[in-house]
Design brief:
hydrolase (chains A, B); homodimer; mainly alpha
Chain lengths: 506, 506
């Protein structure tokens, strides 16, 4: 019997390996499409994508898969098989519960909705997009019924991106975070100590930005024999396998921060994927465990490392070497304050690192309202603008800089946004734990010795891939569940210093 | 009945479309591996290649395929279906006739042989490679028995690369060609009018070589919205689909001809693939019809266009712009003679365009001898060197510059070499026919107007992909079969002028 099971286990792992091979091929095709595939080949390349994706989908919902799940469940399996099986079962259930015809109609709708959204955004015309968004939400609500839910319908959507996170958890932490940030934003608005940022916008040659970014990636411990840096309109990191994790960035010659902080951010994602245990290659576990944990790694590097004063103690002189003299008379302190400026703005992806979570919280509150029938699609523009006014003190002039700015909803990606802010909270919470092992954290940054930091993250987070669930990692690393306190403390401390705010007394 | 057949036909075409999608994905993976995939990802990428290739192989030899062949053969089908079915049947028969176990052993041997060959070549030690080559030849002979053959065993191998070409045909044309070239080589050796080539080896910055090459590609009519130019150690062109045909080149700052003529050569291959009829996308017919016809296109551009006097009338000033002054005092005539220098040399891929066919003919004679049991592997070094001495008047000092120089035999690719010289003959023969439609060929080159030339090639050759067999194209375009006369006339005419040889009298 057990010999029989071990045979099925082997077959199952081979089956999964094939799925993983298709995924890797797809990953490379997507990378290629974004980094310079010739325009006229795209149509036929889409056919290839369709073919491979549908093969992958078929395998994940096949009778073979059902048989593997049925025969292996409940048996004594290796940890890797067990977790891979869990992953497969989750996908199988999710995909099988929706009637095939409905899903096909939904996919067609999605693709139409995305192109309508693009046009609607260009014209700042929400009314044009509204009927499509209404249908998308309607489908998604039906899907939630098929999938089932516990306590709150929105929980099922959250679970897709951040397993274990629920509305109860988010209401608490986002509530605390919102209150703290809104208060800080108000104080900053009132502060007379605004940093001068004018010098950030002097021309900085693209090649120099690239050379500097490469130096920083190297300092972070990004392995160039397991990756490469390319240029794209929308920067991303993609882990094809731990030996091939590619990052891309975008260059703005009038604002070097786009490329440099962008590269550090994607580099943080990339370090995660490069350092997953090789034992997980070819399973379905060889990638970051969740959107939120992934974002914790990119934000850890972008902000907690990359916008830290000690980090620039080490790197400011290097930046000056690549710049064209505009920083020669700017002190490190003034430079540091400039790159940490905070100012309410409309566009999420351009937001500073203090106001950013408010953009997320607004989207969370709206999504939750939609799926609990408390908000209707037609009212979104007004609700959106009201919330921006309430939390950030600014009101979008039109829907392009308001409710139409993000692509996510046109693709039905509800439940995704919270991950961004969760990642930020995780990052601050990890930093707190890291300090117990590396109390000399600031010195390490100041020395440009980021190796112990990367090793700590690999040991505690990266290596596990999807072997551990996000909240399991959080618990194992920090000894507690999600706690907004760490990010709040970090933000208070940082922006109090940057803006020389009056220190709170209790 | 006919309705039933048309249903099966549709299913068959869908099946083939899927095979083609896997091929395209594989093509992109290979391109990526050669143009900059990170080293550490290669091992896992090989797994992906293995998975997709074996899927493709399984499909081509599947029971489904057998059923399609059985049910569709003999029925009234569209031309595309018919030719696709022929292609599938050919592959099916070829793959099914070899016992699976033998084929697997052979694949293992191949991969060992290739790495042994690499080491043997580095050490110039044929004895090391000999036992592997003997086994490869032995397997290949057995395969020929399985596949069957007509008249000559080597015909079966020729048929894999150049359907329709036989030993009878090659003996005749290669015999004529050899005689003519050997005689020209002798006359050139005796000629006092050797061109000065020293100026070709002045430093030419890589970026300038690239910019110049791009201008020439543009002039050729290479569509940059359907392709891109990258850098690799071994240049190649790859047609993923007609909208995505990529070329690569190599830069040598001390000899710009490597990059420029290499780019023109690969550009010639690329024009073929870019201009295949879109109707053939997704079938198995959407690529060049044979190795030889493919090579005819690259050699047509590299030599008949790219090393022509009129071509440089147009482009010599442009070259001077990108060079660093070393051509300012060199006349167009002297430049033209320099780039057409001919001098016997040992290494095939570095040979000039007169002696090149001799390198091929030597390999052809040896391969034919091996498969007809007239030559034994152990005698190859001596036979090789004797032939070089006889035809080219030079004798390799060791096996690295002799019999070990090419990778082909270690992979069992017998029958492939003749295509290179066939391509050259086809090219000269096409040129002759083209002159009837474009009698102003020289003027077109001198004006830099290569459009009518590309359009002629597209109309007569490119568009058909694999819809026509090589000899069918030759017959349709030139009204006759393979004829060595055109290449011989071309070579005599050209090198008589370049070396100011005494004109033959009859």
């Amino acid at each position: 019997m057990s010999e029989h099971i071990s045979e099925i286990e082997k077959e199952f792992l081979d089956f999964v390996k094939k799925m993983q091979a298709y995924s890797e091929a797809l990953g490379l095709i997507y990378w290629d499409l974004r980094t310079g595939a010739p325009k006229n080949g795209v149509e036929q390349r889409s056919e290839v994508i369709g073919m491979l994706s549908s093969e992958l989908f078929k395998m994940s919902t096949s009778e073979e898969m059902a048989a593997y799940i049925a025969s292996l469940s409940g048996h004594n399996l290796s940890e890797i098989t067990l977790k891979t099986l869990e992953e497969c079962k989750k996908n199988y259930d999710r995909n099988k519960k929706i009637p095939a015809k409905e899903y096909q109609d939904y996919v067609v709708l999605q693709s139409k909705a995305e192109s309508v959204w693009e046009e609607a955004r260009a014209k700042a015309d929400f009314a044009m997009f509204q009927p499509y968004l209404e249908k998308i939400v309607e489908y998604k609500k039906k899907f939630v019924e098929y999938w089932g839910y516990e306590e709150n319908k929105y929980n099922t959507l959250l679970d897709m991106y951040e397993p274990g996170i629920t509305v109860d958890v988010l209401d608490k932490v986002f509530g605390e975070l919102r209150e703290a940030i809104v208060s800080l934003v108000q104080k900053i608005a009132d502060s007379p100590n605004k940093p001068d940022t004018s010098f950030l916008f002097e021309t900085f040659p693209k090649q120099n930005q690239k050379d500097f970014s490469l130096k920083i990636l190297e300092q972070m411990g990004y392995n160039f024999e397991s990756g490469r840096l390319d240029e794209t309109v929308h920067p991303f990191a993609t882990g094809l396998n731990p030996g091939d994790v590619r990052v891309t960035t975008r260059y703005d010659e009038n604002d070097w921060r786009t490329a440099v902080f962008g590269t550090i951010h994607e580099g943080g994602h990339a370090l995660y994927e490069q350092n997953i245990s090789k034992d997980l290659i070819g399973t379905l576990l060889c990638s970051g465990t969740s959107m939120g944990i992934h974002e914790s790694q990119s934000l850890f590097y972008e902000n907690i490392v990359g916008r830290d004063f000690s980090f620039w103690k080490q790197n400011y002189d290097l930046l000056k070497e690549y710049a064209s003299g505009e920083y020669d008379n700017i002190s490190l302190e003034d430079f540091y304050r400039a790159i940490n400026e905070s100012k309410p703005s409309f566009i999420r992806i351009e937001a500073d690192m203090l106001t950013y979570p408010l953009h997320i919280i607004i989207r969370y509150e709206i999504e939750k309202g939609l799926f609990n029938d408390e908000i209707e699609v037609k009212d979104l523009p007004k609700i959106w603008n009201d919330k921006y006014e309430e939390y950030l003190g600014i009101r979008p002039a039109n829907d392009r800089e308001g409710v139409l700015q993000d692509v996510h909803w046109s693709g039905g990606d509800f439940g995704y946004f919270p991950s961004y802010a969760l990642g930020y909270m995780y990052a601050a919470q990890f930093k707190n734990s890291m300090l117990k092992d590396l109390p000399n954290f600031d010195d390490l940054l100041a020395e440009g010795n980021l190796t112990p930091i990367r090793e700590w993250l690999t040991k505690n987070i990266h290596q596990y891939g999807k072997l551990k669930k996000p909240l399991e990692i959080l618990q194992d690393v920090t000894g507690e569940g999600l706690n907004a306190k760490y990010l709040i403390d970090y933000l208070k401390d940082k922006y109090t210093k940057v803006y020389n705010l009056p220190v709170e007394t209790h």
